[in-house]
Design a protein that fits this description.
The complex is a heterodimer of chains A (about 300) and B (about 200). Helix content of chain A is about 40%, strand content about 15%. Chain A is of the alpha/beta class. Chain A has an eight-stranded parallel β-sheet, with helices on both faces. Chain A has helices at about 15-25, 35-45, 55-60, 70-80, 95-105, 140-145, 165-180, 190-195, 200-210, 225-235, 245, 250-265, 270-275; strands at about 5-10, 30, 50, 85-90, 105-110, 130-135, 150-155, 215, 240. Chain A contains 13 helices and nine strands. Chain A is globular and about 55 Å long. With about 200 residues, chain B is α/β, with parallel strands linked by helices. Chain B has one domain (about 5-185): 3-Layer(aba) Sandwich (Rossmann fold). Chain B has helices at about 10-20, 30-35, 50-55, 60-70, 80-85, 175, 180-185, and strands at about 5, 25-30, 40-45, 75, 85-90, 100-105, 115-120, 130-135, 140-145, 150-155, 155-165, 165-170. In chain B, strand 1, helix 1 and strand 2 form a beta-alpha-beta unit. The radius of gyration of chain B is 15 Å and the shape is globular. The relative contact order of chain B is 0.17. The chains are: A alpha/beta (about 300), B alpha/beta (about 200). At the A-B interface, strand 1, helix 1, helix 2 and helix 12 of A face helix 1, helix 3, strand 7 and strand 10 of B.
Chain lengths: ~300, ~200
């Protein structure tokens, strides 16, 4: 009754790269800076961890050039957990990306949180076997990253602020852009593609689906279960939480609560219970107090 | 017939698309009340540890066990199959294994994501044409009990098994959109289940 595969297997195809992101939907990806934190995140129900030397709040505080993390740290975090491990490379730094692939990370975040290495070009992500996630502030940015090979999109938000306002702005911008495309006639899509600086095929596919052809998470400033549920109600597929967990008073409880709020995002009675008694959230930053050069979201557009 | 999809986390949408294409009207299952309306349940791919934590945190284990004992039929892919296994060989300490399927599984058995792959899988139970499927950080089935029928293997290990009305896969037909394994599962729910184990 049983039979074998015919032996021919394909790795690193767009379907396989996008497929892992599909498996992460409805989940929370947490920034961690030590193997211990990675274990706490896994125990709390994270679907993946982002291995970093410093969370964005500290990168913001320290200043200077922020680069890929030490491979020894990333390897130690990979060894500590069974869930997928992501790591960040600088925008356009394809050698950092090559190193991360060689280390065996499960996803690469080509991230504006690190200092860009190339002000004109992002990494050409198609030749890599490992999938990439990239940030976007609007639909045009999302399309450009997908056309470069990104297998997953996240909002940029404003990382390390504990302020969800920019993530909301970016998620609304992407959603509004998609709704607009969805309402256009076929013969109006080429002009829309031109305006967005995006390949027509990608624009057509998105208009037909009524959503991006890749998974779209929120990121950048989430700090509470209510923030996580807000982003889910705005239509994202899942949440990245960076500084918001391990910069809070009780990371374990907050991590569990944010995982639960991402699943039960549309049930206010449950959210009320989930949100109770979590200790101090991270201290937030009002975006208007940041100088233009301090805004990470403006990097790599 | 009420088919539910466990919607705590994972590739729920892809399963909904396949089930709807087959004429089913799937409902999302996140609470015990949702589960009560189901005669069949699809457990999707995702992270097994995440789903296990949510099942524990929201006291879903007793109603799940009770429903399955009362005849709820399960179709599971990847992480879902881990949740239903008797033994998780490399599980986290205390990781939930519902013990519905008499199989032992090894999580993430192929290595990191760069080893994930697409393949054409021969599954004679659904026809002579191979099924295009995706193995994404997939588990392997390391041992099966006597009541388990192996429907397909990859590299010599069971990749699709049937136990009574339950159908369990280590891979994702829903990612490629091939609906034949879902159709096999739905046919098995009828008053005269074909095949059986």
């Amino acid at each position: 009754m049983s039979a074998e595969t015919n032996g021919h297997v394909v790795t690193g195809s767009p379907r396989i790269k996008r497929g892992l992101a599909e498996m992460l939907k409805g989940g929370v990806i947490m920034d961690v800076v030590t193997p211990d934190q990675a274990e706490i995140a896994q125990e709390a129900g994270a679907v993946a961890v982002m291995a970093l030397e410093r969370v964005p709040a500290d990168i913001r505080r320290d200043g200077g050039v922020a680069r890929m993390s030490d491979p020894a740290l990333i390897t130690a975090i990979i060894g500590a957990v069974s869930i997928p491990v992501m790591a960040k490379c600088r925008i356009g730094h394809f050698v950092e990306a090559q190193i991360l692939q060689a280390l065996g990370v499960d996803y690469i975040d080509e991230s504006e949180v690190l200092t860009p290495a190339d002000e004109e070009h992002h990494v050409d992500k198609w030749p890599f076997t490992v999938p990439f996630v990239c940030g976007a502030r609007d639909l045009g940015e999302a399309f450009r990253r997908i056309s470069e090979g990104a297998a997953m999109i996240r909002t940029k938000g404003e990382a390390g602020t504990g302020n969800v306002v920019e993530a909301v702005r970016h998620m609304r911008a992407v959603s509004q852009g998609i709704r607009r495309l969805h309402g256009l006639r076929d013969d109006e899509l080429p002009a829309a593609a031109k305006e967005l600086g995006a390949p027509l095929e990608l624009v057509r596919e998105t208009a037909r689906l009524g959503r991006l052809p890749v998974v779209n998470f929120s990121a950048g400033g989430l700090a509470t279960p209510a923030d996580a549920a807000l982003m889910m109600q705005l239509g994202c597929d899942g949440n990245f939480v960076g500084s918001g967990i391990f910069k809070s008073g009780d990371p374990k409880r907050r991590a569990k609560a944010i995982v639960a709020a991402t699943t039960y995002f549309d049930k206010p009675d449950m959210l009320a219970e989930i949100s109770a008694d979590l200790g101090e959230p991270m201290v937030g930053i009002e975006i208007a107090t940041l100088g233009r050069e301090e805004l990470l979201a403006a990097r790599g557009i | 017939m009420g088919v539910g999809v466990l919607a705590l986390q994972g590739d729920v949408r892809e399963h909904l698309v396949v089930l709807r294409a087959l004429g089913a009207e799937p409902r999302l299952v996140r609470t015990a009340a949702d589960l009560a309306a189901c005669t069949a349940l699809v457990l999707p791919g995702g992270e097994s540890t995440t789903m296990a934590r949510l099942i524990e945190a929201f006291q879903l284990e007793p109603p799940l066990r009770a429903a399955i004992a009362a005849g709820l039929a399960c179709l599971s892919t990847c992480a879902g199959t881990i949740l239903l296994a008797r033994t998780i060989e490399d599980g986290l300490p205390g990781q939930l294994a519902l013990g519905v399927l008499d199989i032992a599984v090894r999580r993430n058995a192929f290595g990191p994501q760069r080893e994930s792959f697409e393949a054409e899988l021969a599954v004679p139970a659904v026809g002579s044409e191979p099924v295009p499927v995706a193995f994404i950080r997939a588990p392997t089935i390391e041992a099966v009990g006597p009541g388990v029928e192996v429907l397909a293997t990859h590299l010599g290990k069971p990749a699709a098994i049937r136990q009574g009305r339950h159908l369990a896969l280590t891979f994702h037909p829903e990612i490629t959109g091939d609906s034949r394994l879902h159709a096999l599962f739905l046919r098995g729910l009828g008053p005269t289940p074909e095949g059986g184990g």
